[in-house]
């Protein structure tokens, strides 16, 4: 069964949610990558001010994921999803008035908080479908996101050639439309909450109970901590590789080639790779194998092919892209499916929100570490690649060893996978 056939088998609300996941990434990569250039070149804002604006957007998303997940468990999936779409539409629209510093910061705050509301609720909602395995469902989510990441910049360039105002309007409109669609299509529901007590109707006690439930789930907390290593790696195709290519005097077109290659591989191979992996081993095995591939992929740049032959250099970069992307294909769906498995179907959205806090820390730590490694390249020109290889191997080892205790859900899932098709 192909990804498209699996998509058609899903109920309408899940198909719309997948399209919304695509549009969330499409709108983000359509507008945000070009925002800094517009603010500095057209509005003549200082680079430091632009950095603060983009930092506010990132913080409001990464730092508030837990709140978004908590709200989804308290109110149900529908409300945060609808409000997240509305806030993203409003935030993108406010970028029309970027010459007003207050509205500019408001736009950054709203677009960030919109992601914090939408993402944990959406992930928890995807985990509730019963047609596909959870790993297959999240592989479709990965395809939708990668498609948005691939097409977004192209649409942004075309719209920006007309006007920045048109870009903002086109980026905002789909979110307003999805808010109306989900308002009608999604049912009002609530995630499973911890066991009720006599004062369970008190929102503060409910919130406390949910957070206690998440924090007391030691296996999940350990998994989240270990997976921060995955997120230290995942961003390096768009950070370390562009930084390296820029130092080697290559252009933006060369950088785009690498990112397009990774996105195309992910779009066409994600679902069949996930289905193949489900037939063998367990999610824990595939997560470790995938993260190992992601780390070891950077070994392709250790030999100094640039000095030998430019063709060999691009061949090595192609090998890195393929191996790294294969690692993400193998690990990504199982990482997201394991979160809901480890949550034991209780306060699932808050578990996702908590997990994304560690993801944000991993992204920041990874970028910082690689930046420092490049600054100290005079010690060893391959220092950044050595660091990434070690991160990959160490994370894979920790996942395999520390999370190797038998787990009922994992055992059941392995049995299910051996039966399906």
* Helix and strand sequence: HHHHHHHHHHHHHHHHHH
Q: Estimate the strand proportion.
A: under 5%
User: Helical proportion?
Assistant: over 70%
Backbone structural class? mainly alpha
Strand count, sense and barrel status of the largest sheet are:
none
Overall spatial form? globular
The mean pLDDT is 85
Count of β-strands: 0
**Which regions are unreliable across 5 or more consecutive residues at pLDDT < 50?**
407-421
The radius of gyration over CA amounts to 21 Å
Question: Helix count?
Answer: 18
The end-to-end span amounts to: 10 Å
Give an overview of the whole structure.
By secondary structure, the protein is mostly helical. It is 79% helix and 0% strand. The protein has 18 helices and no strands. It has helices at 3-9, 12-42, 47-62, 65-75, 78-94, 101-126, 134-160, 164-185, 203-215, 218-234, 240-247, 252-278, 283-296, 305-308, 310-342, 348-375, 383-402, 408-419.
Outline the fold blueprint.
Layout: H1 3-9, H2 12-42, H3 47-62, H4 65-75, H5 78-94, H6 101-126, H7 134-160, H8 164-185, H9 203-215, H10 218-234, H11 240-247, H12 252-278, H13 283-296, H14 305-308, H15 310-342, H16 348-375, H17 383-402, H18 408-419
Helix pairs in contact: 2-6, 2-7, 2-8, 3-6, 4-5, 4-6, 4-16, 5-6, 5-8, 6-16, 7-12, 7-15, 10-15, 10-16, 10-17, 11-12, 12-15, 13-15, 13-17, 16-17
Structural key phrases:
421 residues; mainly alpha; 18 helices; 79% helix
Gist of the model:
The chain is mainly α. It has helices at residues 3-9, 12-42, 47-62, 65-75, 78-94, 101-126, 134-160, 164-185, 203-215, 218-234, 240-247, 252-278, 283-296, 305-308, 310-342, 348-375, 383-402, 408-419.
